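REVIEWER CHECKLIST
Item 1: Sequence provided? yes
Item 2: Single chain? yes
Item 3: Sequence as submitted:
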Amino acid sequence: WNKVYYMLRRNKPQQLNCALCEHAFLKDSLLGTVTFRAVYKWREQHGIIMPFQLHGSAHKMSDSAKLCIFCTQFFDKNFAAL
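Item 4: Structure as written out by the authors:
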């Protein structure tokens, strides 16, 4: 049973959370990429509190954040033209 469980778990499609809306999506579905700083500023402007571990973390703020296609529209001026 353990071997079957391990094989099923290993072949399961990987899911990640969108950095903005935090909904789980298949990894390949997260098409947008921005910096965590951009996500932090957007959330701050809309009154959403960021997790404590991101405050004052300069190296984390410059890392890339993956976004779902819906949340990508908030960072792409030409989104409607796609």
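Item 5: Key structural point noted by reviewer: The mean pLDDT is 80.
Item 6: Recommendation: ____
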